[in-house]
């Protein structure tokens, strides 16, 4: 596989780290974005031979300045936007900050990171954009109006981006994980509850999400764009 430069937002989270490891195994140079835990991203970068950096995706000008510096020597041709946050509460009790905080990281953050990268990417006539959405963005979830709205917004964004840049060799797709084995899920849901909820009767593994991202970021996926693919064990 041709080695290209890949950038993964939220790259030190459980799913993000699995994606970073897989893209590095595929031969890409991986740039690992972090916000609150740069040390963890730096440890992952040392492990896979990548490079860690920090910025707040909700600060659009600062993100642009950081990324313009990073791509001064070479463009990013694979972008995986995995950064996101939860702040779950029923809508009637949801504060403006809870709404904006979740939407700004997932959805506005996608704009903030892609906008500086897209022109250099299309200049190479080859690019892969993968937004990590969620099954919640497809079927909804109680207490997650903010999160579901943000993740559904990513689906609409990649559909539009796919139309804008397909002729330039750039694809844009969304991956929608369901219940995936992470510390947050393990704290919130028992194995019995997961078995009741998910047709496959288990949680997915971060590596199963990473495998799909790896394929969508490859030459083999050149004719797949504007799609949303669930990794959910049949949920949704």
Give a quick account of the main beta sheet: strands, pairing sense, barrel closure. 7 strands, parallel
Can you tell me the CATH topology?
Rossmann fold
- Total helix count? 9
Radius of gyration: 17 Å
Number of folding domains? 1
Oligomer: single chain
Strand content: 15-25%
User: Could you name the CATH homologous superfamily?
Assistant: NAD(P)-binding Rossmann-like Domain
Query: What is the H/E order?
Result: EHEHEHEHEHHEHHHE
Mean pLDDT, to the nearest integer, reads 97
Which architecture does the CATH hierarchy give at level 2?
A: 3-Layer(aba) Sandwich
Q: Can you give the helix content as a percent range?
A: 40-55%
How far apart the termini lie comes to 33 Å
Question: CATH top level?
Answer: Alpha Beta
Beta-strand segment tally: 7
Which of globular, elongated, flat, extended, rod-shaped describes the shape?
Answer: globular
What low-confidence regions span 5 or more consecutive residues with pLDDT below 50? none
- Strand order of the biggest β-sheet: 3-2-1-4-5-6-7
Name the structural class. alpha/beta
């Amino acid at each position: 596989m041709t080695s290209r430069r890949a950038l993964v937002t939220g790259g030190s989270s459980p799913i993000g780290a699995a994606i970073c490891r897989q893209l590095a195994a595929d031969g890409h140079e991986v740039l690992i974005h972090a916000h609150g835990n740069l040390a963890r991203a730096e440890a992952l970068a040392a492990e896979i031979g990548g490079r860690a950096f920090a910025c707040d995706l909700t600060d659009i000008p600062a993100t642009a300045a950081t990324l313009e510096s990073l791509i001064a020597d070479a463009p990013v041709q694979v972008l995986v936007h995995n950064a996101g946050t939860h702040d779950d509460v029923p809508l009637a009790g949801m504060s403006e900050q809870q709404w904006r905080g979740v939407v700004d990281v997932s959805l506005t953050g996608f704009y903030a990171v892609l906008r500086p990268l897209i022109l250099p990417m299309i200049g190479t006539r080859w690019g892969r954009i993968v937004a990590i959405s969620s099954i919640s963005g497809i079927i909804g979830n109680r207490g997650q109006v903010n999160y579901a709205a943000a993740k559904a917004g990513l689906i609409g964004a990649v559909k539009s981006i796919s139309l804008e840049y397909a002729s330039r060799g750039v694809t844009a797709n969304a991956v929608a994980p369901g219940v995936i084995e992470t510390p947050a899920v393990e704290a919130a849901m028992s194995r019995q509850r997961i078995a009741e909820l998910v047709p496959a009767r288990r949680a997915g593994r971060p590596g199963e999400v990473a495998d799909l991202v790896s394929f969508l970021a490859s030459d083999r996926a050149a004719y797949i764009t504007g799609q949303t693919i669930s990794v959910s064990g049949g949920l949704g």
